[in-house]
Amino acid sequence: MDRNSRQPDDAFAGDAEGELSPRAARALWWGSAALVLAVLGTSVLVAGAEHGRRLAVALALVLAQVCALRWQARVPVVVLAANAATGLAVWALLPAVTLTGALLAAQLTLCVLSAVRPRRVSVRALAAMCLPAPLAFAAGGPAGVAVYLLAVVLAWTAGQWRGAQQARRRADVRRAVVEERARIAREVHDVVAHTLSVMVIQAGAAEDVFTQQPDQARQALRAIETGARSALGELRLLLRAFGPEEREDENREQREPGPSLARLDELADTVRATGMTVHVCREGAADGLPAAVDLAAYRIVQEALTNTLRHAAGADEVSVHVTAERECVKVTVVDNGRTPQGRSAAAGAGRGLVGMKERARLVGGSLRAGPLAGGGFEVAARLPVERVS
User: Fold this and answer.
1) Rounded to two decimals, what is the model's pTM?
2) What is the 3-state secondary structure (H, E, C) of 190-221?
3) Around Cβ 212, how many Cβ atoms within 10 Å?
4) Average of per-residue pLDDT across 82-106
């Protein structure tokens, strides 16, 4: 889990393909509005100083553009058309304002549209924005039309670059989810194989003592029943996670089952060996947990500790709190690292964090991660027991 990836996404960051998060949309609006007011608003005030009525109308049109920018992330095509029309009106009222400046809001919207809409749509929008080029030529000659076309093309290109960047980011997240599911499937496969092996041994033992020691045989049969119920729960998770890779390790049969919360102290000792102070607190009995939940909790703690070692600036202490309740297991990992200004809990596209969330989701649980108000970073997971028991 890369702590650097928890920075809030900038203007074009989105939660889903082709969409912007509400927070990113607001940031985009504020930035665009400030730029339009600073550049176009100032130009209109200067150019319209001697045109009282025209100045008032032009300023109203500028404010209309700023208001329209509020919806540029949601309906960029409509906003582009509106800003292009109002921009041309501003230029017609005050020819001293360059056409490039009058259409600044439209260029910003073109950039957004190019980033969040398919290429065929953005190409049409680019062609439409090039239509006023003759007006720029009439007003400023070859230099005027060159500046205008350059500004329009740069706006479209910037949007294309940002859209490609976001597409790569989404692909990385999807790939991380697939890889984590494959890893989970392999581990669940091992757990199920181990459980079934124990059942076979118990069945053999029950057969050996069935006549002479019926009580011991019944105990073995009860163990088989318990193991079978557990294995069924693990198999459900195995089917929900994408199947394991076809390639099998040569020594898979000799491998031990995956780690569990019972080995949490061993994990803490490996972190302490680096000089980090690790506090481990347990509440409730973690014995008898479904193997998938036990393994998921361990892996979440492991990833959170790894994140602290790699990315927590100035951290020298981390606390691990595991609470085993009747219906769920709660895991909390908190470090005391510095949280640079601007970090946000809303972000979280790091591949490790994606993996932890996927582990929690596959056992029916949830996970949240983010910086604390007083400093440090917290990872908190809730894993229900009844879903796989």
Assistant:
1) 0.52
2) HHHHHHHHHHHHHHHHHHHHCCCCHHHHHHHH
3) 8
4) 91
